[in-house]
Amino acid sequence: MPETVAERLRSKAGADAPKLIRVLSGETIWPPPIWLMRQAGRYLPEYRALRAKAGGFLDLCYTPELATEVTLQPIRRFDLDAAILFSDILVVPHALGQEVRFVEGEGPRLDPLQDRAAFSRLKDAIDLDFLGPVYETVSRVRAELAKSKALIGFCGAPYTVATYMVGGRGGEEQAPARLMAYRDPDGFQDLIDRLVDASAAHLVAQLKAGADAVQIFDSWSGDLPPKEFARWSTDPIARLCGKVRDEVPGAKIIAFARGAGSKLADFAGVVPADGFGLATSEDLYAARSAVYSCRALQGSVDPIALVAGGEALDRAVDGVLQALGRNPLILNLGHGVRQETPPEHVAQLVARVRAE
Q1: What is the mean pLDDT of residues 60-81?
Q2: What is the distance of C-alpha 149 from the center of its chain?
């Protein structure tokens, strides 16, 4: 009989497992594994060349041959310890029936859901067949990626995805969604609940297709007051993790609530993730105290220091290693690689970590 996804993941939990998986299992490895958010993207000339041939951004995401190549580009160039699927968090609302497009130089645009009545435009459940090309990309990457490297799938957290669905675009503090949450909390809860179910199904499909771990990106919840943060970020992500583990016991999950700050302890106390991403603004020593020492932390070199390079980058890397390196650590940035980043600075970061 073919092995189940849970059996496949368990088989990767031993000493021969990818370093990232071992760290997410509670092991401290020195030097720590490295991957970078937005490690595949516009700062790489090989990405820009491929992007020019692909047409629209979503065409690139939904073409498995091209998305596979983009995913693997930074692995070939920098020998990072993990690849992250090239896709976008907004494929989930797209597969729920919302119009999604990307405007060159401006970013995503969605047909905004301005009130509860607009939710009727959404499908009752995510269309996984619509996202079949994404899962084909996962399978292709896993087949081409060395066994020593981990493959990370991902989704946006329900709150962050909801802010784009309601507002129709990114904006200052994602105010339209926050207003809806205050004015119609029951209606906003309905949208969050739909996204918990849809996101869980999306992550499970990626794990079944070959992903070794998944990350949940909550990019916009850090601005929420504590009570709202608990309701709209912590609780949905906890439920999302639970639904994934119901389908894939032992699934490795990283939760990244950007800018959680003083709310991190409560967040980590409720969310059953294996690792927690840290933003650049976090106090690393306070974060380590807030999370049980057997659970991994991920981060949090400043992306601006990566742009700067030189001694500033070395100091930033050394600071993270000194603060977090005695416990399970995944070296990453506090946010994504910026477009203006020189590729040689990424090579410098990798060399600095591995020279320790």
Answers
A1: 98
A2: 17
